[in-house]
Amino acid sequence: GDLVGTIELPMAVGLVGGATAVHPTAKACVKLLGVKSAQELAEVIASVGLAQNFAALRALATEGIQRGHMGLHARNIAATVGAVGDEIDRVAEALVKEGKVRMDRAKEILDDIRRRNT
Question: What EC class is this (predicted)?
Fold first, then answer.
């Protein structure tokens, strides 16, 4: 009954030179991750890949990948337009219900929610 995941990603990963040495965002990400070697960075990359695969499996096993993806996308759009806390769920739910998962519509819904609460 255990779920076991493996992933093989043939890619070159390095920390010496290149973007990780000169690009400010790349440097900040490496520092934030706390990785000290290319092996550690590769393990993080593989972990992210496994997490994404696990999320896809969950979506397939529960509500279906399309519906699950649309709900996740709607939540991301809601947060992007400034929704916080339970506003995110309310905006996302309205977007999915309408079938209009768009930034402009999310902003309209959020503004409407906030108008009603004041």
Answer: oxidoreductase
